[in-house]
Amino acid sequence: MRLLHVDGVTKRFGGLTAVDAVSFDVNEGSIKALIGPNGAGKSTLFNVLTAYERPDKGTTVFDGRDLAGLGPHQIVRLGVARTFQNTQLFEEMTVLENVLVGRHPLTRTGVLAAALRLPGTGAEERRSREEAERFLRLVGLERHAPAPAADLPHGLRRALEIARALATGPRLLLLDEPAAGLNTAETANLAEVLYRIRDMGVTLVVVEHDMGLVMEISDEIVVLNEGRKIAEGPPRLIQKDPAVIEAYLGEPDNA
Amino acid sequence: MGRLRARGLLLAVPALLIVLVPLLVDDRFVLKVLTFVGINALVVVGLALLFGYAGQVSLGHAGFMGLGAYTSAYVTVRLEWSWLAGIVAAALVAAVGGLLLALPSLRLRGHYLAMATLGFGEIMFIAFVEAEPLTGGVDGFTGIPYASVGAFEFGTPELNYWLVWATALLSVAVAYNVVRLRPGRAMRALHGSELGARACGVDIVRLKVQVFVLSAALAGIAGALYAHLVGFISPSIFTLHFSVILLAMTVLGGTSSIAGPVLAAALLTLLPYVDAILPGVPESVATFLSEWETDIYGLSIILVMLFAPGGVAGLLRRIGARRGRSSMEREAA
Q: What is the pTM of this model?
């Protein structure tokens, strides 16, 4: 079943066309990778999908619903969560509190209910803590729960962002370079975590430069170059695609 | 849950001490100064939510106090409505002011927001001077009655003290509840990373408006309490200078804390009256302190920023962490 439908999305910044008429579908329960040299438009595309940027043209449809005109917080509520290339953690809050903020769309306690401690606020809080702890275990951060996010070792910061995104209860999770800065062991562990997330029924779209990881985990790959989609298909076909090879030979650092 | 109860006790003990003060202090002047501490504490609780938790600066809070004070004065003196109606009107009018000031906060950050809120405070000041038919202009508004509910009048310093501190402690309790649950976490998330907060489904526009409105309403109530306590208000009270002092209290108190800013409000409010509070301190010290008040505030902010960025709350937390660690070591031993 088609969960996400991206149709002719174009985004320009002044004279630069960062994303140029890109279309693709993401099937429910799959892992799709989005690759391409630096500046290919991958992060911009994420920003358009999650309403941090408005597209100049094109539509995105999630689960049969057009996302045009919605704000980022509304898109999260529909079930599309994301992480950032530059991690956006709440540094002064603890690791557990970071994930608790992720529970925001699934919980209700407002200022008035909290101020008066209306019935139900305590139960909701306990439930949120249980859920948050569950996601911390999933990414292997349970030991760090009481530490400030700022104190987290570099290799674990992205894991925390993934746990926080999962806490929002997504059906589609967009990960922007989850393996950036990870060593080999950490990357292998990340692959396991991503499989577990998929097995929970969450569909994944991953922007990633680590080709080993991309080839291993993805069911399908979309290749962008200079804002345009130049190839789409399963990993073994993408590896042989002449257009892809040419795009990457131009920038061997990323191959 | 056990920790929650321990924290409740931690609040209950100082609250009890505060309530008992009028029975121990028979100096009317001292009691009045301590009542002003309560009024400033009430404003600072709102500023702590706005600045210490949500990360939105305001240099216009004296303006909200003034809005509340003039509103309640007008409602009780000119319209001859009850004190309670005056307080509610003060909270509502100040809340509307907060709503208006929230609008620039949606587009401005940091220093630019500080400038916008400073502008708001100045506009309020000029409005209090110029709207003479409503405010009495530079001469001020006189003859504001004591607080009263039905036939009962808060006519003594003790009763006013209790009234102000009951309100202040209630605001502390409310603030504690808000910051420990979902809305407080959303505020701190907003402070930490707006992008991250939005990715967690936080409607940051709504949240900013809510915090500004709540913070302004608390300041409005504080202003109204002040008006009925003193009986006279004039524009010269609700100045930029006072806004700066209120923000200084919040900064010195530390971020993500309610108790810290309240404590800082007490310290800074009492500073110029140190001779009246502490026996044995010569009057010359107090005179010196009150003459150099603003400089001392400024210097203390610089020193806090340099050497204790967590403010009073940070110091308290460090002591708490050390005690926690030593008890853990004892358990391990």
A: 0.91
CA distance A20 to chain B (A): 25
B202/A117 CB distance under 8 A? no
Q: What percent of chain A shows pLDDT beyond 90?
A: 91
Q: State whether A82 and B256 contact (CB < 8 Å).
A: no
For residue A212, pLDDT over 60 is answered with yes
Domains defined for chain B, CATH in brackets: 2-332 (1.10.3470)
Dist. CA A91–CA A70, nearest whole Å: 28
- CATH number of the structural domain spanning residue A16: 3.40.50.300
Q: What is the pLDDT, as a whole number, of residue B12?
A: 83
- Shortest Cα distance from A138 to chain B (angstroms)? 18
Whether the complex's predicted ipTM is more than 0.95 is answered with: no
Residues from chain A contacting residue B202 (CB–CB below 8 Å): 73, 101, 104
CB-based contacts of B258, cutoff 8 Å, min separation 6? B45, B48, B52, B172, B175, B176, B179
How deeply is A135 buried, as exposed, middle or buried, from its count of CB atoms within 10 A (0-12, 13-18, 19+)? buried
Mutate to test the interface with B, among A50, A52, A82, A111 (most CBs of B within 10 A): A111
Q: Does B320 touch chain A (CB under 8 A)?
A: no
Partners of A205 in the beta sheet? Answer: A32, A174
The two three-digit tokens of residue A164, written as one number? 């926080």
B196 CA to chain A: closest CA distance, Å? 5
The tokens for A217 are 């985990």
Q: Does residue B197 belong to the interface with chain A, where contact is any CB pair within 8 Å?
A: yes
Asked if A71's CB is within 8 angstroms of B198's CB, the reply is yes
Give the structural domain span for A13: 2-254
A34-93 pLDDT per residue, tens:
999 988 999 999 999 999 999 999 999 999 999 999 999 999 999 999 999 999 999 999
Mean pLDDT of chain A: 94
**Average pLDDT over chain B, rounded to whole?**
90
Q: Report how many domains make up chain A.
A: 1
